[in-house]
Amino acid sequence: MNLRSILLGSLLLLALGACSKEHDAPKSTAQPDNPLRAQTEALDKARQLESQIQDAAQQQRQRIDEQAR
User: CA 32, 37, 42 angle in degrees (round to 5)?
Assistant: First the structure.
């Protein structure tokens, strides 16, 4: 056998070995954990708080307007 056929055979075996399913990682159906989850939750809480503050300010303006009349 010449060197060329040995190299070709070796490459073929490596390619077939790389395609085997034994080493494939199991596919998970769970969603991956978001590394920015804490920041996202903090932003959501801030938006809710901002909405509450705006509502309170609107109510305060209405009370002031009613007392001024």
Answer: 170
